């Protein structure tokens, strides 16, 4: 089994860790396939109620490993195929019913932005830096960046990152809405967030995440139909029945 991405599942929490620190966790062909396979496995594991995405070493992810790709002898069609594989992993996490929190530190560059934005909640270290750099080496956005980045920060700001050689600090990224929090110990904070999901109405948090993330790509009518079906299904769960009854009892006092 590849060790480019590590996975562990404990008491409902899946931890997915990028593990190529010597390459700043840049994703090569093998790691891309591993990412897709991990996404499939984790999101179909019935024991998993929350996911933490983190990374070993000083950087979260420097994007695609263009050095490895360029020295492999691969042509553009192989890069396209690899992008499709990685995109499947991103889409699987985004469309799933399991909420994911990302822990980011150091460099988040190029496709690393898209991998980070596959998470629903992002906690950054104070030293985190965010940059595009695609055009600097003559390449174009991939790994969901052209969709997920403007969805997070708006089209105009996304274009500022993509069309200029601009680096955002953690504080600037927070102001732009690219991340949710800056924390002195982002790993501990992410664990708190995941524990909150697991201790609460886990299924409801997961379905709320799914409705928002999936709804961005559908028309309003389809979203309303999904909302109606989802809240009806939730209402019949034992978890909801117990919580609604407790709420009604408290309100009657």
Automatic annotation (TrEMBL):
Top EC class, one word: isomerase
SUPFAM superfamilies in the record: ClpP/crotonase (SSF52096)
Gene Ontology MF terms: isomerase activity
GO biological process: isoprenoid catabolic process
Family note: Belongs to the enoyl-CoA hydratase/isomerase family.
Keywords carried by this UniProt record: Isomerase
Native species: Microbacterium halimionae
Record bears the keyword rRNA processing: no
Pfam families: ECH_1 (PF00378)
Enzyme Commission number(s): 5.3.3.18
Transmembrane segments: none
Name of the protein in question: 2-(1,2-epoxy-1,2-dihydrophenyl)acetyl-CoA isomerase
Magnesium among keywords: no
């Amino acid at each position: 089994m590849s060790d480019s991405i590590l996975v562990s599942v404990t008491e409902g929490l899946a931890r997915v860790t990028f593990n190529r620190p010597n390459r700043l966790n840049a994703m090569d062909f093998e790691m891309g396939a591993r990412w897709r396979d991990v996404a499939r496995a984790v999101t179909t594991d019935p024991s998993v109620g929350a996911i933490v995405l983190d990374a070993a070493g000083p950087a979260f992810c420097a994007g695609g490993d263009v050095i490895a790709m360029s020295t492999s002898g691969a042509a553009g069609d192989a890069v396209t195929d690899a992008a499709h594989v990685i995109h499947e992993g991103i889409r699987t996490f985004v469309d799933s019913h399991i909420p994911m929190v990302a822990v980011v530190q150091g460099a988040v560059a190029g496709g690393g932005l898209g991998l980070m934005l596959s998470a629903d909640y992002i906690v950054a270290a104070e030293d985190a830096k965010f940059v595009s750099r695609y055009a600097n080496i003559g390449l174009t956005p991939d790994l969901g960046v052209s969709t997920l980045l403007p969805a997070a920060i708006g089209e105009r700001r996304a274009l500022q990152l993509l069309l200029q050689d601009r680096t955002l600090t953690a504080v600037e990224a927070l102001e732009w809405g690219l991340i949710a929090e800056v924390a002195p110990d982002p790993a501990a904070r992410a664990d708190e967030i995941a524990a909150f999901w697991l201790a609460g109405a886990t299924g409801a948090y997961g379905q709320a995440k799914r409705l928002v993330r999936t709804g961005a790509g559908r028309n309003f009518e389809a979203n309303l139909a999904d909302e109606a079906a989802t809240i009806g299904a939730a209402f019949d769960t034992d978890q909801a029945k117990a919580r609604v009854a407790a709420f009604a009892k408290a309100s009657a006092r």
